[in-house]
Amino acid sequence: MSIKNKLITAMLLMALVPLLLIGLIIYNHSKNALFAAVESHLKETASVQASRIEAMVERYRDIMRMLANRKTLKGHLDLYNRTADINALKYIDEAIGQIKESIPLFHEISVLDTERKVVSSSNVSSLGMVVKEDDVLPARYENCGYVDVIKGDDTIPDLRFSCHLKHNNKLVGYVTAVVHGGFLSEITGDYSNLGKTGEMVLAKRDEDGNALFIVPLRFDSNAAFTRKVSKDDTSVLITQALHRNNNLFIEYKDYKGVPVYGVTGYLDNTRWGFVVKMYKSEMMEPLLLLRDILIYSYIFIIGALVVVAMFVSRRITSPLLKLTNMAEHVSKGDFSQKISYTSKDETGVLVSVFNRMVDMLAMRDNELSEHRESLEVLVHQRTDKLRVANEQLEAEVSMRRTMTRRLMALNNQLNSLVNAIPDLIIFKDTQKRYLIVNRAFEEITGFSKEDAIGKKVEDIFPADIAATSTLEDEAVIATKNAVRSALILNKGDNNIHLDMINSPIIDDSGSLSGIVVIGRDITQRMELEHQLMERNETLEDIVKRRTAKLVEANENLREEVQQRKEIEKQLVREKNISDAVINTMPGILCLFDEAGRLLLWNKNMETISGYSYDEIAAKNVVELFPDKQKETVYREIRDAFVNRTGDFEKNLYNKGGTDIPFYFVGSVIDLDNLSYLTLIGIDITERKKMEDELVLSRERLRLNAIYLQEMIEEDRKKIARELHDDMSQSLTVLKIEISDIGKSVGVTLIISDKIKNCTGIVDGIIDNMHSLVMSLRPTVLDDFGLIAAIEWQINELQKRTGTVFEFDTELSNTEYLENLDKEYATILYRVFQESVTNVLRHADAEKVRIRLRDEGESIIMEVEDNGRGIDEAMMYDFKSLGIVGMRERVSLVGGKLDINKGPSGIGTKITVLIPLKKEED
Question: Residues 31, 35, 38, 43: what is their CA dihedral angle, to the nearest 10 degrees?
């Protein structure tokens, strides 16, 4: 490339590189900003949509929990399972009908028994069907939760929920519901803020693990439960979502194969994957516009720069071209050329200097010609001498290489031989420095070759060993004879005994050239000799003692034989007495080992079980119980062996196929270093019947009490509504009529005052009537919930009494109260109302604090005052109707009410705990 072109190129590069860098910076900054904005927007949209979906699913799950907590429903199902009572089934049908009417989004509600057979359903066609286990047992919830999403009759997805029904801690069945999932289509069909191509897709895994869409799509309205994506196609975003790759924002494909950018997520509660995405083409539109602007700008700037560069380079390179032409002539040996350039700038100075340099080169060329011939003669002479010396050097190097190879082979053979010997070997020079050590030296002493080579014994070994070794080496050097000695090395906690030989190394001239030390490990031999001596002494002592004992044992044996005969007679008598006692016991008794093998039992065991002696002997104790109880019986027996005692209630399964309830008490006895369990059982059939009748009676009383309480609240509501609607309107009309009387006829001042008094009396009656209505049944409780009703009541009481009230809510999940059953809300409100009334009547308090919080699956309300404190006698006085009423209301739903005095007898604290589930599952 010519200097002119180089100059043009350099000028263009100097101008274009900064411009290109600036353009790239602007483009990359815009690209990053666009990607960050789109990613943030998609993530925010995905978070909001996912939260809406999870909130709706959780709402239905809470409704299902409330259904599963209906104690009367579970009680009637348990009664139906045990007795097939038609009335119990009618109650279940009525309860399902009421639930279906109150929650229209439930397409179908079914109650199943423990065998998953449908005993009652809003869909009559499903009665008697046996539901698959996967459709009633939630995948990730122990008792209650979402099961699956299915295609509804209207092509809109339906959600299936299921809950266990437990009565008295026993599984009595299941309740399932199919919920209309239209909210999923509404949420995913909201394309606002998603541009022209953005959308949210929702999918689950089908039976083969592929992604199955469960909602309509923006560009495929029929995609729900029809369109799939293979589980192996990881280039599609929905597959990544189902692999739980959350917040993935990268260029992928969508279900149509179009390049997209999107955010993925996974809903753990439902095992759905979702994607919020946008087409790459729509996202890249601003960047493409910016790219076009930059390209057109660069084209214009480059054209202008080329014109300027060509003009400047032509002015600069013209004299340089002349210098280049002259330099070519000089390089060919032509020194006659000259350049005529009259300018006095740097180029003119360069031309004049170049002309003088050409003249000097011509003179030097002549001188070099004269010296070249003499140098050639000298070079030929020196070359001959170097050739002879080189031949001699090559012969000497070849001989030395041969000697080096032989020495290396001998050295390798020596090292192999020395390392193969199991004894310790050391080679030293005449200065007692280590030259060679073998592998046995490293293993016995624990020192490596690098630690020993070039050092003396005192550099690596303790002082006592070093002194002994030095004396032996000096003796070898002085006498040139071998020296033998014993050496003990301490290696950790062990002592190593070595048999050492130090020998001189004599060269061909008879001079001492070094010392070789050989050490053999004799530790095992020393130990064996020591053990052999000890065993000989021990055997002699044992023989003496055994001889004396044999003489003594022979005398004792005769006496023992006579005693054994007496003991055998006593054992026979005791066994007969023991068998008589065991067989006359009213219950059953058995003895078995830890493996469950029966060793002893009484006659009642054979009579009650119906098995013969040989049949019982062939059985394991667990086989005497029903199949459904065998696992728990095994655990109870195992715990009894561990705790040395135990008791439990289980049914004995006799040969005729009848279950007989027994109360068992067990205790462990030890015989011959083995443990056995003695199990005594008492028949509790009659007691069980009485307990069941008592439980049923209590349940009926509780249901009647709940019914009466509901009727009272309904009557209060009805009276309050009639007072508010009828009486309020009548009084308002009366007030208007009285006012019209004064307007329609001329009245005196006295009559006008009377009319004002009458209207004032009517206003007072209306206010009193409103207070009465709110005390009977505040409408705010039905319309706005428990918290709003408590706040309204507090405001009313503060206006009337001047007492300071504080109301704190510490609920971790306010949805508890939003979905709270009216029965629970009414009980909490009535207890609060009665508590505050008692404070205002009796406590003479200045301040009352109400606190509402949740703990686990329970709601707790505390009412605390700083008054004079409640009298302990009143806490349990049946004449205290307010306290008795509060206790009865709370106990109806399985709650607790505690009344305690404050510290130092100041104030009273009432605590109410009501479980959201009426019984613990």
Answer: -170
